[in-house]
Structure formats: C-alpha cells, structure tokens
Amino acid sequence: MNKLQQAHQLHQQGKFKEAETLYQQLLAEDDQQIDVLHALAVLYGQSEKYDDALTMINKAIKIDDALAPLYNSKGNIYLRLDKPDEAIAQYQKAIDQDNQYAIAYNNLGNAYGAKDQLDQAKKQYEKAIRLMAHYSDAHYNLGVLLTRLGEHKAAIEHLQQSLTLNPHRPSALGQLAEIYLNDGDFNKAIDYYQKRLDLQPEHTESFFSLAQAYLQNQQIDDAIAALKKTLILQPEHPEANHYLGNAELAAGDPNKALNYYFRQLEINPMMESYYNIGVLLMSQNRHKESIQYLEQAATIDPGYLPVHINLGALYLKLNRLSDAIRHYQAALTIKPDDAELKHIISALTANETPDAAPAEYLANLFDQYAKYYDKHLTEALQYQAPELLFKAIEQESTVNAPEWTILDLGCGTGLCGKLFKRFAKKLIGIDVSAKMITAAKQKAIYDVLKVMTVEDALVEFNDNDLIIAGDVFSYIGKLDAIYQKAYDALTTGGLFAYTVEKTYTEPYELQKTIRYAHSKKYLDQLAQNSSFEPIRCDNIVLRKQRNVPVEGYLVVLKKN
Predict the structure, then answer these.
(1) Which of 2, 125, 358, 471 has the smallest number of Cβ neighbours within 10 A?
(2) How far apart are CA 420 and CA 443, in angstroms?
(3) pLDDT at residue 518 above 50?
(4) Rounded to an integer, what distance in angstroms lies between the CA atom of residue 502 and that of residue 550?
(5) Helices (H) and strands (E) in the chain, counts
(6) What is the DSSP letter of 546?
(7) Cis peptide before 507 (omega within 30 of 0)
C-alpha cells in the first residue's frame, strides 16, 4: 500500500489528523498532485476548516479547470458554509464539464432544497436517478423532499429503494418511521424506529420519537422505558421530561407526572408543562398554586384556549369574579362563536339572561363531573334533592308495588332512580352527558337509558305516570315549553315533580354560579297556564355551596 492509499484509508476511518499529515507530506514532495489537493480539501471540509478547504480546491482547479469532481467538491464546501447560491454555481460548472455526472445533480438538488426551491430540487434528484438508477443517496434525498411536499406514498417508495441499495442507512429508516408516525400508522413507525436503533443503539432522538409512537399506540410502559433511555443518553433533553410526565399521567400516576413536569421547567420551560402542572394541582384542590402555573402558561401562549377556560373556572371557585370574567372573555376572543363561553359570561356579567344553558355546555360539564359526581354531591355538598323528592311523592301516592312508568329527566348517575325504582314497572333515564349515562348503566337501575335533551325526551316518551327532575332546571331558565310538554307526556292523574333554586327576581335569574334560580310567582303562573293542579311547593334546602345552604323549591304538580 503506497502513502496515498494509506492516507485515503486513514481518511475513511475518520483519523483526520493522521491522514492530513500524510497528505501534507505528499504535497511537500509534489504540490501539483490534484488527487492529494482534492482529498485534502474534502478532509478540511469535513473538519469544518472551510478556508483551508477552499484554498486546496482552488489550487487543484488552477492546475486543471476541466475536472467536474473538483467543482462538485467546491460546491459541497459552499453548501456547508450555508451559501447555497455559490454552491449552485459550482455544481453547474461540474455539470458543464460532465452532463452525465449524477452526483453533481444530486448535490444541486440539496442546494435548491436549502433555498426551499423544492420543485427545482425534485427535478435534480430525478435527473440523478435517471443517470444512476442505483444511486442510494439520490433516492434517499428525493424521499426526504417528497416527505416535505406531503407526497408520502412516493416518499416511502424512494426511501425503501434507498434501503434496498443500502440496507445499513439509519437515516432512511428514521425518515420512514417519521412518515408512519405522522400518518398514524404507529405499529410501522415503531418497527422502523426499532430497526434504526438496531443500527444506532444509542441514537437519542430515535428513542424519543419511538416513545411518541408508543404513547400514540397506548403502549404506556414501553413509552416510559423509551423516554427514560432518552434521558440516560441525554439528561438535559429539551422535551423528554415533559413527555415522561404525560406517560406517567397516562399510566395513572399524577404525582410522578408532576415530578417530571417540574424537572422539565428546570431544563427547558414549556407552556404545556406549566399548563399540565396547573391542571394537576387544580385536581388536587391546590387552587392558588394552580393559578400561578396556569397564569404562566397564559403568559407564554395567550392564544391557548384551555388555559383561559381553566383559569376562569378556578377564579370562579375562589369567587374572584373579575379575574374569572377576564379569562372567559379572553377565551371568547379566541373562540368567538362558542355558545358555552357566551353563556358563562352572560351569567357572570348579568348583561343578558339566556333561556337555557347550551346543550354542549351541559354535556361537557357533566362528562367531566361523572367520575366523582355521587361522592361530591352527597358528601361535599350534602345534596338533598333525591331524598326530598322521594318523600314528597311517597306522601302523595298510594303506590305500594312497581306500577308506574317513570321518566327521570337529567338522571345523572341515578341518585333519584335508585330511590324511585321500587315504584316503577318501567324506569326511563335520560341525560345530555354520555358519561353520566355510562355511570348509570353500571348501577343496573333503569330499564331504558338514553343520551338526549329534556325537551326531546318529553316528546319521545309518553304515557308516563311520574316525571321527575332533580336539580335539572338549574340549567334551564325558561320553563314554559317544558311545562306543556311534561303535561302532554303524562297520563291522566300523573305527577310532575322537580326541584329548583329560589330567587325573588322575576321570573328567573342566571346566577354567578352559572345556574338558574326561579321565582315562586313564575312557577305558580306556569302551573296555571299549563292546566296542572298544584299539589305542593315546599321551601327546601337543596345542598350546601361553600358551606352556605342553597335554598330552593320542591314542586309537585298533577295532571287532571
């Protein structure tokens, strides 16, 4: 092996200093050796000694200005210097010397890609492939470009071809994995990330991206393992702690999740981490701490809708109405047609009184509430409405066996239903919240359960002996149409029993609790207008709110 071959071998092995020494010795013997000058220019370019690289390549070109590879290498140096225009000029000179030079076309594509001239880049890659069908680099580069253009099917074909020609190309495996991850084919994404890791066992970003695929595929334990490996390889990874928090949250361990979110803030504060910490603290009733983190999230990204909604809810719990209004109005600015937000703001500002809460507001509210509804109402709020309704109907009826068809409006999880079951030959429960209906099904109380509105239920279910509505009209202000529909949905002699919150404002008001309260005068007028016979209208305590009794009425009406 001669000295030049030895230098090339060292260069290929990445032993740049040893290779440079031999190249310089060869030049000392003869400084007109184009191969040595060229090789040394490439080495300097790889070592980021760009001035030295240009000096060497220019010396080589001065000796022979008709060699295409010299211009190609000079273009590579300019491209490394982030000077794509100068690089393009050199690649064009290479092609002028040899218009069949596939490598120059491929590199020209890279230069156009650096300028975001993607159509031009695509043409150059395609030209390189036409000249050299088995050119792995050109297939890979075209695959990456097509990914940027959103042409994923074609991108996959070229990346697969690149791997057929060069099976040990980790970047092609990673690019395929990324395409499948973005397309939602998580199993294939996982497969390709694992193949890349077989070739590069300590490639940090592959472990991190693999974790994203696992999370999306609900393989939570695998995601946690991949994220922990990411942090072993790169303890200061800019996002891994945040996603590890997400994974621990998905695994059902909010305390571990909190720890990782806090670590994320130490390394790279992310709006999402501030937000998630705020939500977790809110769920632990650590409201003042929660506000600090949510406000920071809102500062980082004022356009993030959920943070304003949660802050509005928190401030409302703390009775800080002006702050609550500020965040709900910020949310409405982001989502100006949102009926829920408009309803909440109407309640807090008292600018207008809508007839009822929007159905989507109720569905979302009680979907979130369903998991802890029974415990919160009966223990924290000392909710009395179901028992009071049952006692009232028990006193007004002579039913001792299951004889009635009973319609339970806004049945929730079945707090009323379990009491009235003994009277019912058929018990029907309806609610706007799908999660409430799911919870009610688990109790096996009802014969029929459906997700629907009060108004629709009163039309669909007729010939009822009893209609009950425990704390349902707290979300409906105007009851005229409901009264008439309830009258029509009852059998002769049937009973309509419900509870409402009390107000002396006529005819009803939307309170700052975002719940309606009704006046007795209005309720009496409704009964008269709909031909119901009033049986009773009792003053009751419905529950406690902030340890203060919430007064209401228990109304029983009869259809004659």
Answers:
(1) 2
(2) 14
(3) yes
(4) 8
(5) 29, 9
(6) T
(7) yes
